[in-house]
Design brief:
The complex is a heterodimer of chains A (about 200) and B (about 200). Chain A is about 65% helix and about 0% strand. Chain A contains 8 helices and 2 strands; from the N terminus they run αααααααββα. The two termini of chain A are about 35 Å apart. Chain A is mainly alpha-helical and about 200 residues long. In chain A, α6 runs antiparallel to α7. Chain A has a two-stranded antiparallel sheet. The model of chain B has no long low-confidence stretch (mean pLDDT about 85). The longest helix of chain B is centred in the first third of the chain and has 30 residues. Chain B is mainly alpha-helical and about 200 residues long. In chain B, α3 packs across α4, α7 runs antiparallel to α8 and α8 crosses α9. Chain B has 9 helices and no strands. Chain B is globular. The chains are: A mainly alpha (about 200), B mainly alpha (about 200). At the A-B interface, α2, α4 and α8 of A face α2, α4, α7 and α9 of B.
Amino acid sequence: MKKSEIFLNGALKDNSIWRQVLGICSALAVTNLMINSLVMGLGVIFTLALSSFTISLLRDYTPRRVRMMVQTLIIASYVIIVDIFLKGFFPEISRALGPYVGLIITNCIIMGRAEAFAQKNNPFDSLIDGVAAGTGYTLVLLLIAFFRELLGFGSLFGFQILGDWWVSWSIMVMAPSAFFLLGLLIWFINYRYYTKAS
Amino acid sequence: MDINPFVIFLAAIFTGNILLTYFLGMCSYLSVSKEIESSAGLGMAVFFVLTLTSAINYLVYHYLLVPMDLVYLQYIVFIIVIAAFVQLTEIVIERFSPVLYYSLGIFLPLITVNCAILGVSLFLIIRQYSFIQSVAYGAGSGIGWLVAILALAGIRNRLKEKYLPRGMNNAAISLIITGIMALAFIGFSGVAIIQ
């Protein structure tokens, strides 16, 4: 497979959120603000790329019976790096994300890519696949956050876009809107690209 | 933090439902909710594991990690505790109650990667709960998760034969139903608890 093909497959065609509906816990939780989504997305890209790389590097030396445990420990180590980095340099965002940074460990996307790709391919391809899957995930996060922040606060990345006339939709800041928006997004993508008109 | 543990228990079921307000445990929630029986089985298993791991993780954090100044290792330690506990439960159930093992056992491995379990352990550290409060929070979250998955399974069961618009697949319709459920659960936040 060509490198660009791996990237496009991972980021768009096999996008973990709308095709496999994986890892949506954090996709829903952090999307009330664009900046939180961006930071979370970068954290996932970092963890996903490096843990895919490491898992692929160690794939011939890991006994099959304990591989889940080994994978989880590798992922957890990278998440700790992300967590310490955020606490040190961006304490406010770290507080806003709360436990969701730690929950990258149990994000099914990372396990999913490890099982589906890194287990069978060479380290470099796995790294690209990790970056691609992470990028696809970040795109979906930013898309949902765009609507939630714009309609809920009238701003984007904290800058006021809509003027004083805008009455904020407080539902967009609350939990249900995340479910609705993701449901509608999956419906739209399915309708547009994966079903044929009968 | 001096909140009555019973209030924490009720709040974790209704106003701060682990799934409907904190979005934790979505993966297995969406994939298992096709059948009511398996939803009930997984829900019970989550309740059981959640209650006990929140107690164990509380003790491990406050009596092991804090004195040894190893707080930054909490993610790894929590995940190991959860995985070991799930494995142990599986062995014990298999040995003593084969009937229970056949109804619960197949769901146990799924639970290690259920983010609700790790999420609750992290929340109770962040919110600085006491031991009793932590157990109450764990048990309440478990029941809250069980209620949510049973409700979705019931609704999906009724939708089985119905016509859905083109492209509206299982995931999309489940998310929209969950959104409506979350909206309904917000209503509980107006209920005052008289102490």
